[in-house]
User: Fold this.
Amino acid sequence: MLVPKLLESAAATVPDRKALVVVGHEEMTYQQWDDRSQRIAQHLVGLGLTAGDRVALLLDNADAAVYLSTYVAIHRAGGVAVPCNTRFTPTELAHVLSHSGAKLVVHGEDHGHQLEAEDIPDIHQMVGAQALRSLWETGPVPDVQVERSGDALADILYTSGTTGTPKGVACTHDNIAFKGASTLSQAFERARFLHSVPLFTFAGTHAMSLICLRGMMTHITLARFDPGVFLSALTEHRVNLCYAVPAMILRCLGHPAMKDGGFDSLKLLMYGTAPMPPHAIAELARVLPQTFLLNLYGLTEGGAAVCSLPPHEALARPNSIGRPLPPTEVRIIDEGGTNLPAGEVGEICMKTAIRNRWYYKDEAASEDTWDSDGWLHTGDLGYLDADGYLYLVDRIKDLIIVGGHNVSAPEVEDVLIAHPAVRDAAVVGMHHPVMGEVPKGFVELEEGARLSHEEIQSHLTGRLADYKIPREVDVLKELPRNALGKVLKRVLRGERGEVSA
Assistant:
């Protein structure tokens, strides 16, 4: 099935229902969404877009109506959507645009300057959000659908990999529109769903948007997360289900409006991407007694949430990330690929009902990640207990999850080492009371060199997105290493506790 078919069905069934509410900004019905995507698709074809051409989206949630309309329009015009993180530095953005081969970029008015940097490759067309808005209510609604098959490439979603260079996870139409992923949509059909996840992420583009679209829900989002606005939206829109990363929930729990209540309509609160502190789970259960709490674990490569942890189990098993959701299978293997028994640590492998994805233009990495039997090798180390609950012990891929954003430790290390005074560097994730984790750096300097905190921060700023920059960088005489010279990051993680907010 092609992605636009999902919108066509919803627009035919509930044309006047609110499809999108950007709190404090704008609203859009399902009929408007369908019509606008058709007009934008016609415009894209007129600009020369042909089947298989990649179109980058550089838009914030304030432009959610443009994002969602253009996302479907790209598929109607036969193109491939490439969502881009608006917090990328020019170097990071240049890599994604170059690697994907983007022919056209649709950008928010606040992000056009990012496309003027020297590193940015030549792009055939650049279109501002306001130019697309001007097409919305003009002329007859065309009927555009360039012929594509369900196994045609639809999206490339970039995520941090083991090398620190963002990898593009390629997804087909059949993969994205997979009907088996609609259980939640069926259970909450025509409900009101609130979140503040950036739409350019996997969770924003696929999970949040498609859950709402399949269930013909009202998709409510914030231009920028604010705990007071988030809590106000919960009550004002009588929200039925919502999703938030732990960092957002912790800020809400600390906000005065939490004491006012008024959340009786909220039936399901989902959270994930980072561990939720047990004390927060207990507090949520107290202030939201009528709400079912659900902790989710999944990967962009997997295409769906694969584990869940209800609150009573979260309190009983505070270190678990949940039990696999059928039909997902999880197994733990050793270095030789042999299944390990309960309690033994090995690599976490999973198999979902969703068709496999792959790394765009990276056959070797794809073969390392997805085996011939359909198992996804996550690169995470963990174990299953006797009851089938999964525990995450460490990350082979060395990812640090900062408030829901993936940060690759090797990427940050490479930037630190690029400073002439730095001989070697290591970056680890340290616990943070709000963000879940934040990067912390350790550097070993060249003989006789000196480096101040201000010099390090100046070096990092502009080379890394702000959430990737370590809050602290310690200068060590020598980094701890094993007999083979490999840095012992577990030793570094044990040297400090919490990083202050």
Q: What stands out?
A: The first strand starts at residue 18 and ends at 22. Residues 495-501 have pLDDT under 50 and may be disordered. The chain is about 30% helix and 25% strand.
